[in-house]
Amino acid sequence: MSEDLVNEIEAIRSIYGNDVLREADSAFTYILSIPHRESSLRVLFPPNYPESIPQLLGTERTGAQARKGYGSHVLDTARAILLSLFIPGSVCLFDLLQELDTALAEESNGQPSSPADPGDDASLVLNAAPCAFEEEPCWFVSSAVTEKKSTFVARACTVTSPAQAHACLAHLLKSDKRAAKATHNIWGYHIRAPSTAESTSNITYHDCDDDGENAAGGRLLHLLQVMSVWNVLVVVSRWYGGVKLGPDRFSIINNVAREAVIKGGWTKSRMKND
Fold first, then answer.
1. What angle do CA 263, 167, 150 make, to 5 degrees?
2. What is the number of alpha carbons within 13 Å of residue 135 lying toward its C-beta?
3. Which of 68, 113, 123, 209 lies at a 20 to 30 A Cα distance from 129?
C-alpha cells in the first residue's frame, strides 16, 4: 500500500469516522460508505495508486428502503464523478465522497446537479466573461507532477483575442470541477493579431494572473515569450498539499507549462514561421 493511500485513508477516517472506509476480503479492496447514506461501494485501489485510477467494482449495500435500481444508479454516478475529477498522481477519494454526496443530496431534493458550487470563484469568472467562441476549446494537458503532496497540471489551448482567452478560462473553471477546486489556477496568454487597415503591423496582446501564487503568472508569461509561441493560453493548476515548496514551485510550473505547449504543437508552428 502506497504512502499516499495510507495518508488519505487516515485523513478521511478522521473526518467521517473509521467506518467510512473498511478493508474488504480481497487485497487492496475497501468498502467505501457514502456519507449521510446507507449505500456503500466496493473500491479496488491499484498498487500504484494514485498514479492509476481506482476501480469501483460494485455496490456493497444500498439500504433496505432503496428503490429498485438505485444501487446501479449510485454506482454509475460515482464512476462518472471519479472519471471527471481523477488526475494521475493526485489522490481523489475525499473529492469523490464530497461530489457524490452532493449529487445524491441534490437528487433527493429534486435539484439538478450543477458543474460548480454557486459560491465558487469559477462561477463568478463565468458570469463576468461572455463566451467568445463557437466551439469548446481544445485543451492540451501535461502530465501531472506531484511534489511534497502538491500536484501541478498545465493546460494549453489556442486563442486569438483577449476576450476569447478569458472565455476559455471561464469555460474550463465551469466545466472541470477538479480545476475549479485547485488552490491556484495560474494563467497567461500571448497573442499576435493580424494587421488591419488601421495598422500595418501586427497587434500583440499578453496578460497573466498569479491567482494567489505570488509571482507565478509573470514567470509563466515570460516562458511563453522566451519560447516565442503565439496565440496560446496556458493555465497551470496547483492543488496545495500542505508543504511549502519555495522557489522549486516555479520550476515545476514552467516545466508542466512547457510540456502542454509542446504537446499542442505551438513550437512547431513557431519554427515553421521563422
1. 55
2. 6
3. 113
